Structure of L-ascorbate metabolism protein UlaG (Beta-lactamase superfamily):
Amino acid sequence: MAECIDVTLVANAGILVRGGGTGLLVDGIHDQGDHPFDRVDRDTLVRMRQGDAPFQQLEYLLFTHEHPDHFTPGLVMEHLRYRRTKGLFTPDPRCGSVEAVLLARFAGELGVPQWNGSLEPGQAKTYGLGEGLGVTVIGGVHMGKAFTGVRNDSFLVSVGSSNLLFTGDADHVPEHFEKALAGVSLDAAFVNPIFYHNPEGQRCINEVFRPREVVICHLPDREKDTYHLWFTLERALSRHARPGMPVRVLTTDSPSLRFCTERG
Ligand SMILES: [Fe+2]
């Protein structure tokens, strides 16, 4: 019997994961800031609150770091006013904005379980969330010289026998992932184009992640691509793509994937 997980791009690095009777959203509530990446539009936010397709099951909200193209705490607060959630994984609000502190306080008042990340690079914590569901938070730093002081948690999401890794904007440092992923068989690793392009990112993929496939997200519309990420990605694909490890790119034109594994 096949066990399947559905993955849907919400906006930018925002990904909805559905499987095993539950739904998790990674970096999927944001609409703020001056950047070229897609925002989560109003209609999508309302559908999330109302439980309209594909958000009928939306039980855990996970955020890798508090940057405006990944996480808008005020909008998460608004979401929680309308819809209860079983848990919230956020960066440590003590290192974040006033809005992040207010969100933590509000979620606390509602009795929403919260797990704070911003873990030390290389540190990891695993949380069992019920039958066949677990999340491992893996500490790291944000990529890019401008963000060396910013933490970025990656998430290993385990649903049944499937394992998906979401790296957000994690820096490509193999040592940050080694311990948490030792012995883990990854069905897919989600990375941004810069991670995939970088030789150290390739080392993470080849030597540490060793996924069945790689999924690339966090691409702007081609018309707004001020960072030339499409060019970077296309060059990287021609350089690094190889048989045995498919690479798929999630875009608004092609926003869905399904991962199936055979069970006993
Ligand atoms: Fe980002």
